[in-house]
Design goal:
alpha/beta, seven-stranded parallel beta sheet, six-stranded parallel beta sheet, 23 helices, 12% strand, globular
């Protein structure tokens, strides 16, 4: 179509060089956007056929300055585009400079915020001040800022008060549920020495302070001895962190069996198979704006145990698709994992619900349609940043505060402290969506849980049978979208109206140590009653059924039928949300 907006998508990561969630986001967003806009991807790194690649100046030594030199090349190369859309601080400055140079709108998607990641100073040194400056300048001057979660939007407005709320939109990450789907094969398990007859919990991610790997390793010391721990974790950000993780892994391997560390980056099909056969995926992050890897695990039909931080509660429905725990709390993390290890039927039910939630609420077609609608709104001139303000910020490096580098002084430290305090409210609690404030209420909750467990017992007790249901139909759960809520957006609006920003559930369950031991004992009895459960869990899993694929594609068919009408409708529907 000749009237399509010409968009330059700016990113550091792009296939085959993808190592984090932001790179995954850009890869799938670009694929889904291609039918809607005239798209060109600009990335950093080695030349490739699928994008325009930009390299750093060879004479530079500092890592941040190398990024900036590639940004200059990107800003120069996008001449002729009608709009630039950048992702992460690595490309945000390129988008900002392109906007000033070519007089076009700049959309900046934030997958994290530099001031809330002070540990990056350990990795970047003085470059952390440069990355923080670049992010602030670019976001303050952008025509629109896209946050990947409601929690991320709140962080943007708190850290950068100079940004007007109406310019910050929430467009969440998506997941390709046709690609990320249960895999019945077990050859990858055998390849990496994982015992398919024993349950295992799995971590997939980078070794950074943000991802909380040491928290998981300390929690693993208290896991039931029957469980295996699988770590798909590559090279650490710093030498000190690498030594810390290596020492913790060695200590675990000396004290228990079944600790498997896979340090290399695995191909996507291998990750999908490992996620499929895990009893639970664990995300111990201390900071996570959304956590796309949680969606990947859910799409593979696996329960999630994650930190209650950032945007994770917008993905993991506590008590339905997984359990949430306070960040940086090994004891609570171990308790939550042991709950599922001792109640595999409950873990299966959560995995089933997680697959359904991923299919119905997080499609990339919906993400692309919302993004293209924002482009159309900017192209129509209804939302623009102030050029004077952006030029001032470019020169000064400061918005409204006296400290130019958020996170390097007291203001940044205070914001991080508030975030951590909020995440640690109710230390030692496991949020399973069935909170109890006192012993009387707890007794009532335990009674309700007993009924829930009887319902779980009636469900398929192995992952093979469950996979057949996952492929054939959706779980009609009483908290699902079939019951009065048309989609995930309405559901999130309801939560925000009831609980504020929705990041920290109002009701939490205090899990006393005795109750955990009691559930562990009950779990042992169930395991003795079903000694071969884990041998049977993967029988009969063979691909996706047409019905599941039809649900995953439904949004795309609607979008392709009338793309311009859909963009206009979504733009109108977004008016006044702020």
């Amino acid at each position: 179509m000749s009237d399509r907006v010409k968009v330059a998508l700016l990113t550091r990561e792009y296939p085959p060089e993808v190592y984090g969630g932001a790179g995954v986001h850009v890869e799938y967003l670009a694929r889904a956007l291609a039918p809607l806009v005239d798209l060109t991807v600009h990335c950093q790194g080695a030349p490739r056929d699928t994008a325009v690649a930009h390299q750093a100046w060879p004479g530079l030594r500092d890592a941040a300055l190398k990024v900036f030199s590639a940004d200059l090349s990107m800003a120069d190369a996008v001449a002729g585009a009608g709009l630039v859309h950048s992702h992460t601080w690595y490309a945000n400055l390129a988008g900002h400079l392109a906007s000033l140079l070519h007089g076009i709108p700049h959309v900046a998607t934030v997958h994290s915020l530099e001031p809330l990641r002070p540990w990056k100073a350990e990795q970047l040194g003085g470059g952390y001040a440069l990355s923080s400056w670049a992010e602030r300048v670019a976001l303050a001057g952008a025509a629109a800022v896209v946050a990947v979660s409601g929690g991320m939007r709140s962080d943007v407005l708190s850290v950068y008060p100079e940004i007007s709320p109406e310019r910050v939109r929430v467009i969440r990450n998506g997941i390709d549920t046709a690609e990320y789907a249960p895999d019945p094969d077990t050859s990858v398990l055998a390849k990496h020495g994982i015992d398919p007859t024993r349950p295992y919990v799995i971590f997939v991610g980078r070794i950074t302070r943000q991802k909380g790997v040491p928290v998981l390793l300390r929690a693993a010391a208290s896991l039931d001895p029957s469980a295996q721990l699988v770590l798909c974790a590559g090279a650490a950000d710093t030498k000190a962190l690498g030594l810390e993780v290596s020492a913790l892994v060695t200590g675990l391997q000396e004290s228990r069996s079944g600790v498997v560390w896979i340090p290399e980056m695995l191909p996507k099909p291998e990750i999908i198979q490992l996620l499929t056969h895990a009893l639970a995926f664990v995300c111990p992050s201390v900071y996570e704006p959304l956590g796309i890897v949680n969606l990947e695990a859910m799409a593979c039909g696996t329960a999630v145990v994650a930190s209650r931080v950032g945007g994770i509660p917008e993905v993991v429905d506590a008590g339905v698709t997984g359990l949430l725990v306070p960040p940086d709390d090994p004891a609570s993390l171990a308790d939550a994992l042991n709950m599922l290890l001792r109640d595999p039927g409950r873990a299966d039910a959560m995995g089933f619900a997680g697959r359904e939630r991923a299919v119905t609420e997080f499609s990339w077609d919906a993400v692309a349609a919302q993004t293209a609608a924002l482009y159309a709104e900017l192209a129509a001139g209804t939302l623009r940043a102030s050029p004077c303000a952006s030029r001032f910020l470019l020169l000064s490096g400061s918005g409204s505060g006296a400290h130019p580098y958020p996170g390097s002084g007291p203001a940044g430290e205070d914001l991080l402290a508030v975030e951590r305090r909020a995440g640690r409210e109710g230390q030692g609690r496991v949020d399973d969506g069935e909170g109890a404030a006192d012993d009387g209420e707890r007794g009532q909750v335990e009674g309700e849980r007993a009924g829930h467990e009887r319902d779980v017992e009636a469900r398929p007790r192995n992952r093979g049978q469950r996979a057949e249901l996952l492929r054939g139909a959706h779980l009609a759960h009483p908290r699902g979208p079939q019951h009065g809520e048309a989609n995930g957006h309405e559901r999130q609006q309801r939560r925000e109206a009831e609980h504020g920003d929705g990041r920290h559930p109002v009701r939490e369950e205090q899990v006393p140590e005795g109750a955990v031991r009691e559930r562990v004992a009950e779990g042992h009895q169930r395991d003795h009653a079903h000694p071969h459960r884990h041998e049977r869990r993967d029988e009969g899993r063979e691909g996706l059924a047409e019905q599941d694929l039809a649900v995953a594609r439904r949004g795309g068919e609607q979008r392709l039928k009338a793309p311009l009408d859909l963009l206009a409708d979504q733009a109108v529907g977004r008016e006044g949300r702020g």
